[in-house]
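Exam revision sheet. Question 4 asks you to relate a sequence to its structure. Input first:
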Amino acid sequence: MNRGAEQERLSQVPGARVRITTLRAGAGPGLELLEYLAPRDGRPRPADTRANDLIHWQTTLVVRDGAAAARALGAARAPLVSAGPVALAAPELGLAAAVTVRDPDGHAVQLRGATAGGAQDPGEPSACPTPCRSTVTGGRRHE
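Answer key, structure tokens:
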């Protein structure tokens, strides 16, 4: 756990106590996850936040089997942001589908995979419970 004057200076949060978890694959960049144990008085994400709002942020992870990831998330009852797997508009990147969910803290996490597994076409209207549209466009794949 990080705390003290140096952590307060780094985060610019007075009284910060931070648990840092690091994830690293065999190659490529690592990922640090920060959990602020104190202070705990931050504002919650507005319930009506959409992907095109300035406040929106998502973490995108590439997985081997997008269909299996979507099934596992469904079985875990992860709160879906997209209606389910969505076909990607740029198959030349080697990725067929993506699904976006909320983590336990409400952050958007998008999993992109090489298998579609019943993905909805990006041009179809989403089946989200509130008005939304799930379209995923291509990005850059780094190897």
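Marking note for examiners. The CA atoms of residues 6 and 12 lie 10 Å apart.
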